[in-house]
């Protein structure tokens, strides 16, 4: 008996060893979830595309400070669009904040198989006009409070052929006492807003639509047009089709373990795919309740999580950093959150965030609105921290169309084998660009590109990557994989720069600096220096309140109260930064310039730093009015002024 017991024990031990080395159980969890998601996606295809399942009543699946949408409201709104001549595949532009009205309008358009174009509610002027021109719609639906931004560009909007409507009820827009006004006063009030009409959909029919109305819906048809953030130029309208959206919304619900009794907190803007397709969309298959915030608020985040018994929340970009930078509070661990899901959790804050707020599981993922592949990392242990994905032997065997290939960091061209002409796959720990199969054979590998922008759509594709005739999509992102199957984000292809003959990752440097005491947030970029090859590193740093009390600005960016600097603390910080950089960074990777920001960085709606302007300004003291420091030949940061600038421009200073 003893030998049998010993044999069983040995087999179990061997099993644990093999699983520990190759993590088959982690691999299998992802594969099992993917199979289940594909099954549900096929079911959605039979139901004619993305929409709430019949058992998941949207009137019960949304919590908010305002009234949730009801099936009757969705149907009434749909009838209004039909009465205005909106038909299958017609586009309707939506300029709206996070609210039940956004959900009502979106679902109403899905009911009649029309396509909403989600316009970023933070844009105006030329960017707004560009977005509307790309959408090429005839109707623009907007929140009443955004009327001012539209009025400033009214001639251009009308020149594009748009009719403007707001779904905001008159009583809400004009004031609670609107119904008590006499007819003459009402007409005077309405005349002041004569460039648009109220939809007045609330009193229309709540009768359902024939099933035939959606029978023509194909999985290639768009669910919405969702615009890229536009950090480097005008935004592009990614086509989010029914097939990929069904796959995404079901996958995330399954991978996150969301149950009908769960409550998911969504603070991200619904005009992006993360908030809309994943954050809200997962509830349409899981049956969970969405707790929808108008916008992200550090002050209210944990209060809302506690008040609504939130079990899951969605993050992106720097959201978690803002929460971590807030003063510690008794609320930090009074919530019931067991999983946070999102992308962009940087390694320098990951473990600290989990520990401080007591969140057992982080589900980090990598994907793109227009992408044809994704990475997933369900992180429960220290070994998982920092990775954007895990692809073990099973995942690699079943999903072969996700690769990292060699790329020239200067030209951004893919490097090809001189003999075969094909791209070269990177080995472990080798940084390259991630490419994903775009063969259109499955929902997940179908590439729809950008609406009304054929050149940009084609520019993302590359042919003959690993064999003749294949097609892959370039992500524009640099990643690397470890020998134990974890995948890590390195940088954007355009952000990595060369200095002293070495490739420098801005994301890696920002992560390293972000770990230093005193730094609230930072962004790193390369700047051109006269007479120097490559680009020199520069870090724009926003400091904690103990060193610098940030300037207060109004809604249009004007400084109301200037920043207040603790000079002694700043001097000590710069000295510590010099020691830190010397110790933690290779000599070539140390930023040559430090810019001390007096107000928080400008960010996009998805919390991405808008560092394009910083890069343009470089170290030009005619443009940069904030304090700067430079890395001297003695290996220390010292104040950077006009005399130092002249030395560098004249080529007399050694960087």
Automatic annotation (TrEMBL):
What is the membrane topology listed in the Swiss-Prot or TrEMBL record?
Multi-pass membrane protein
Catalytic reaction equation(s): a very long-chain fatty acid + ATP + CoA = a very long-chain fatty acyl-CoA + AMP + diphosphate
Q: Which species does this protein come from?
A: Lunasporangiospora selenospora
Q: Name one GO biological process term.
A: long-chain fatty acid import into cell
Domain AMP-binding enzyme C-terminal, residue spans: 508-608
Name of the featured protein: Very long-chain fatty acid transport protein
Please report which protein family the annotation says this sequence is part of: Belongs to the ATP-dependent AMP-binding enzyme family.
Name the PANTHER family on file. Answer: FATTY ACID TRANSPORT PROTEIN 3, ISOFORM A, LONG-CHAIN FATTY ACID TRANSPORT PROTEIN
One MF annotation (Gene Ontology) recorded for this entry: long-chain fatty acid-CoA ligase activity
**Pfam families reported for this sequence:** AMP-binding, AMP-binding_C
Q: Where is the AMP-dependent synthetase/ligase domain?
A: 77-422
Q: Which InterPro entries match?
A: AMP-bd_C, AMP-bd_C_sf, AMP-binding_CS, AMP-dep_synth/lig_dom, ANL_N_sf
Keyword Cell membrane in the entry? The reply is yes
State the source organism's domain of life: Eukaryota
The record describes the protein's role as:
Acyl-CoA synthetase required for both the import of long chain fatty acids (LCFAs) (C14-C18) and the activation very long chain fatty acids (VLCFAs) (C20-C26) by esterification of the fatty acids into metabolically active CoA-thioesters for subsequent degradation or incorporation into phospholipids. The transport and fatty acyl-CoA synthetase activities are genetically separable and are thus independent activities. Esterifies VLCFAs in the peroxisome matrix. The VLCFAs are actively transported into peroxisomes by a PXA1-PXA2 heterodimeric transporter in the peroxisomal membrane.
Q: Name one GO cellular component term.
A: peroxisomal membrane
Q: Where located?
A: Cell membrane; Peroxisome membrane
Q: Which Gene3D superfamilies does the protein's record reference? A: 3.30.300.30, N-terminal domain of ligase-like
Keywords, alphabetical: ATP-binding, Cell membrane, Ligase, Lipid transport, Membrane, Nucleotide-binding, Peroxisome, Transmembrane, Transmembrane helix, Transport
Q: What is its main location?
A: membrane
């Amino acid at each position: 008996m003893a030998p049998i017991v010993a044999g069983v024990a040995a087999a179990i031990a061997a099993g644990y060893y093999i699983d520990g080395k190759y993590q088959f159980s982690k691999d299998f969890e992802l594969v099992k979830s993917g199979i289940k998601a594909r099954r549900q996606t096929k079911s959605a295809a039979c139901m004619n595309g993305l929409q709430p399942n019949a058992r998941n009543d949207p009137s019960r699946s949304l919590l908010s400070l305002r009234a949730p949408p009801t099936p009757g409201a969705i149907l009434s709104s749909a009838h209004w669009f039909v009465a205005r001549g909106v038909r299958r595949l017609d586009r309707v532009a939506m300029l709206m904040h996070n609210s039940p009205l956004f959900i009502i309008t979106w679902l109403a358009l899905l009911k009649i198989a029309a396509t909403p174009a989600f316009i970023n509610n933070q844009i105006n002027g030329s960017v707004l006009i560009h977005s509307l021109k790309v959408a090429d719609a005839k109707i623009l639906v907007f929140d009443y409070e955004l009327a001012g931004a539209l009025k400033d560009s009214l001639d251009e909007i009308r020149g594009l052929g748009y009719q403007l409507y707001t779904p905001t009820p008159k009583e809400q827009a004009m004031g609670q006492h609107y119904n008590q006004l006499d007819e003459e006063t009402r007409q005077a009030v309405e005349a002041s807003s004569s460039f648009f009409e109220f939809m007045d959909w609330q009193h229309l029919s709540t009768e359902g639509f024939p099933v035939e109305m959606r029978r023509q819906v194909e999985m290639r048809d768009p669910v919405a047009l969702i615009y890229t953030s536009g950090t480097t130029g005008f935004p592009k309208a990614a086509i989010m089709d029914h097939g990929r959206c069904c796959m995404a919304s079901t996958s995330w619900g399954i991978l996150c373990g969301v149950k009908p009794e769960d409550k998911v907190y969504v603070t991200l803007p619904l005009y992006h795919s993360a908030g809309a397709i994943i954050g809200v969309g997962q509830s349409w298959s899981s049956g969970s309740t969405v707790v929808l915030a108008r916008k992200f608020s550090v002050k209210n985040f944990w209060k809302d999580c506690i008040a609504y018994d939130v079990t899951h929340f969605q993050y992106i970009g720097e959201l978690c950093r803002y929460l971590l930078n807030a003063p510690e509070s008794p609320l930090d661990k009074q919530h019931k959150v067991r999983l946070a899901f999102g992308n962009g959790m940087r390694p320098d804050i990951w473990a600290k965030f989990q520990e401080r707020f007591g969140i057992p599981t982080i589900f980090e993922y990598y994907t793109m609105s227009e992408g044809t592949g994704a990475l997933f990392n369900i992180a429960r242990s220290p070994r998982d921290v920092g990775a954007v994905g895990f692809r073990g032997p099973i995942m690699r065997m079943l999903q072969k169309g996700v690769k990292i290939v060699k790329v020239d960091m200067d030209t951004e061209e893919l490097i090809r084998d001189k003999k075969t002409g094909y791209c070269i796959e990177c080995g472990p720990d080798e940084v390259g660009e991630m490419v994903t199969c775009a063969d259109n054979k499955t929902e997940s590998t179908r590439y729809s590109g950008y609406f009304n922008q054929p050149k940009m759509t084609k520019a993302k594709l590359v042919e003959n990557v690993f064999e003749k005739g294949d097609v892959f999509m370039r992500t524009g992102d640099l990643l690397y994989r470890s020998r134990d199957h974890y995948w890590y984000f390195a940088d954007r292809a355009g952000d990595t720069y060369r200095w002293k003959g070495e490739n420098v990752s801005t994301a890696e440097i920002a992560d390293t600096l972000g770990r230093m005491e005193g730094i609230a947030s930072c962004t790193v970029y390369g700047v051109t220096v006269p007479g120097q090859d490559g680009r020199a590193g520069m870090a724009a740093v926003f400091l904690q309140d103990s060193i610098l009390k940030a300037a207060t600005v109004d809604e249009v960016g004007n400084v109301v109260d200037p920043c207040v600097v603790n000079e002694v603390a700043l001097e000590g910080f710069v000295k510590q930064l010099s020691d830190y950089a010397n110790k933690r960074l290779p000599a070539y990777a140390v930023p040559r310039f430090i810019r001390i920001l007096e107000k928080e960085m400008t960010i996009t709606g998805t919390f991405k730093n808008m560092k394009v302007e910083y890069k343009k300004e470089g170290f030009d003291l005619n443009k940069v009015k904030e304090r700067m420091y430079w890395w001297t030949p003695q290996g220390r940061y010292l104040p950077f002024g006009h005399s130092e600038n002249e030395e560098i421009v004249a080529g007399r200073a050694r960087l």
